[in-house]
Amino acid sequence: MLFNVWRHIDPLRRYRKNILVIGSEVLMLRSAWTPRLPCCSNSHLTPDLHDVGPGESGTEEPCDNFTDLDLSHCFMGTSLYVRLLLYTRSNPDCGREVAHHRLSSQPLLDLRRPTAFVIHGYRPTGAPPIWINRIVRLLAEQEDMNVIVVDWNRGAANLNYFTAVTYTREAALNLTGFIRTMQEEGASLSSIHLIGVSLGAHLAGFVGANLKGAIGRITGLDPAGPMFTSAAPEERLDPSDAMFVDVLHTDMNSFGLRGAHGYNVSPWRDALVKMGQTKVFFSTTAALPYQKLSYRVDMVTWNQYLRWGVVYIRLHSGRNFTEARIDHKLQRLEQYTSTRLLAQFDEDLQNVQKISVRINTGNIIGPRYKIRLLRIRFTPLERPDRPVMCRFDIIMEENMEVAFRPLPCDSRL
């Protein structure tokens, strides 16, 4: 699994607020044949009347459902028709189709709130995505926001995948026009979050590019690989498409897009944690297999003077080595202090013959202070079959590397 992320910090404060969900067409079409609809029509289609929700006057009004097609539509081919279904905390289970004009006159759409658009991908069977209702509810529970499902099922539902690919550009133009109308009526582009799945991730990227990267955030979930693997940045989701771009890859070996297509989170990690946007994060390598080898490092230090430092650790096997910099925060080193660290290494060295440790305190003037390690213990986390490594009673000098041969640990230590 690869997770790579974003750039500007300002919009991060608003990410949870601005979520608008964009899906496909929302109607339940019952006949095997339906008339061809214009690409960017905003006319209101007849909703499926068996679903109803509360209206403004307290009466029951029909819900606007995601377009439900079948294989006959996919065999015949569908032309692009984009519908926008609005969900809020007031109507989490009953979508309301939103027109592309006079947005302020639509009672449930509050442009002062953040907006999240949810955009589905290729639909080879025509059925609605089973995850749509779940993601809508999760977003609405997280914060009071507009969640807009972009329903382009007519267009995405084609047996010919390449036809669906060509429609992503047209659907992006439709959605770009809607977002520009939002901006004209008072919405902030930085408060908008596009969440795209498969082809929907690239569609979101095209919208972001049309708006010169001013969208607050784009999240790509398994961006589609076919037709995009060798594409230039302007022809697929790209880090420049929004202020903040994060991408989650879980399907690279089949239909997913390979490579890093979001921003590196490392420069913003501490800021994200402080702002409460991130509670847990993990690191990956920049290339396959996108996985680091992790060790839990337990140290017990004993030194006369209080020192603060950053810990560097190298694992050696023959002429090969891999290094971890424990940089989450400065470590406090004083008399009989027990410290637990997470060390992550880019390379997996199976036979570790030597370990070297350096504690960088930043002291460049004056005498070097000694730091005594009473015990250091390395526990492999992903490979429990490998031995736990220890060493005892090591005398170090700050800013100087010391190397030692690891010894087997007593399991009771």
UniProtKB/TrEMBL annotation:
**What does the record give as the reaction this protein catalyses?**
1-hexadecanoyl-2-(9Z-octadecenoyl)-sn-glycero-3-phosphate + H2O = 2-(9Z-octadecenoyl)-sn-glycero-3-phosphate + hexadecanoate + H(+)
Query: Which UniProt keyword terms apply here?
Result: Calcium, Cell membrane, Disulfide bond, Hydrolase, Lipid degradation, Lipid metabolism, Membrane, Metal-binding, Secreted
Give the highest taxon in the source lineage: Eukaryota
Q: Where is the Lipase domain?
A: 77-255
Q: Which residues bind Ca(2+)?
A: 236, 238, 241
Q: Which Pfam families match?
A: Lipase
Locations listed in the record: Cell membrane; Secreted
- Which Gene Ontology BP annotations are present? lipid catabolic process
Any signal peptide, and if so, which residues? none
- State the family named in the UniProt similarity comment for this chain: Belongs to the AB hydrolase superfamily. Lipase family.
The UniProt function text for this chain reads: Hydrolyzes specifically phosphatidic acid (PA) to produce 2-acyl lysophosphatidic acid (LPA; a potent bioactive lipid mediator) and fatty acid. Does not hydrolyze other phospholipids, like phosphatidylserine (PS), phosphatidylcholine (PC) and phosphatidylethanolamine (PE) or triacylglycerol (TG).
- What is the protein's name according to its record? Lipase domain-containing protein
Q: What is the species of this protein?
A: Gambusia affinis
